[in-house]
Design goal:
By secondary structure, the chain is of the alpha+beta class. The protein has seven helices and four strands. It has a four-stranded mixed β-sheet, covered by helices on one side. A hairpin with a 2-residue loop joins strand 3 and strand 4. Helix 2 (24-35) packs across helix 3 (40-50) and helix 6 (90-101) crosses helix 7 (143-156). The longest helix has 14 residues, at 143-156. 26% of the residues are buried.
Length: 157
């Protein structure tokens, strides 16, 4: 499931930690970047690759919101709905997205371009409301900023 080059990168990740268990998150990122999500087969593969129990890998995948166990859109819109973002307009963010592309939390557009996810906290409380698109943060959101962003992403395909 990984190329020789990717396996070398796994070894490099492992070299930074005292145990293989500590390398799980880095290898999960690699796997998700390659395949788009972390399947049950991926969990088994990573557990065997790192020689750690599958339940430990599954525990990490299910604990952190950055990992997905199902297919997501090319652009994963993660909307922070924690207290700071909620008080400063996360409902507006979700409504604007729904109005613009017709989907809400847990849904994906028919073309597979966008999926919307709720995030408990993305750690950007001072710039709420905010969301991430894949690994990029977009802060101090307004309906205009959201619509411009979605239009730009659609243009990129």
């Amino acid at each position: 499931m990984f190329t020789e080059e990717e396996l070398k990168h796994v070894d490099e990740i492992k070299s930074h930690y005292p145990t293989n268990l500590s390398a799980v998150m880095g290898v999960l990122h690699m796997y998700q970047d390659k395949y788009g999500y972390i399947s049950d087969e991926g969990i088994t593969f990573i557990a065997k690759l790192l020689d750690v129990p599958e339940e430990k890998v599954l525990g990490v995948v299910t604990f952190y919101e950055m990992y997905h166990q199902h297919k997501t859109g090319k652009y994963k819109l993660q909307v922070c709905t924690n207290v700071s973002c909620m008080l400063r307009g996360s409902d507006m963010v979700l409504k604007t997205i729904k109005d613009k592309i017709g989907i809400g939390i847990g849904e994906m557009t028919a073309d597979g371009l966008f999926s919307v996810h709720e995030a408990e906290c993305l750690g950007s409380c001072g710039t709420a409301p905010m969301m991430s698109v894949n690994k990029d943060y977009h802060e101090n959101l307004t309906p205009e900023k959201i619509n411009e962003l979605i239009d730009a992403l659609k243009a990129q395909g």
